[in-house]
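Supplementary notes for students who missed Thursday's class. We covered one full example, reproduced here. Read the sequence, then the structure, then the short commentary at the end.
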Amino acid sequence: MRETFVSRPAWVLSGSMLGWGESVVAECDAIVFVTLDPAERLRRLEEREIVRRAGRPHDDEAWRAFKTWAKGYDDPTFDGRNRVYERRSPLRHSG
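Structure (token representation):
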């Protein structure tokens, strides 16, 4: 993270930093938590997957497992990274 981002004069990182980005939080000028309607978020994930696979079918086991995991993000009882966990994270209060 430090090599990729911090040495640049300006940068934007999209996505969660929990579990892998904590080491650069002190280097950030701002951290913005953006939410999106769950159905729209999943639609965008699917759209990105279509582009990533250059139009090839993506309804395989790995995609189904990822999609199930991604749906869990909006469930506060989900045993994994979820919206409630990120909103309570110390990253939100470190600046």
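Commentary. The two ends are 18 Å apart (CA to CA). The chain is about 40% helix and 0% strand. If anything here is unclear, bring it to office hours.
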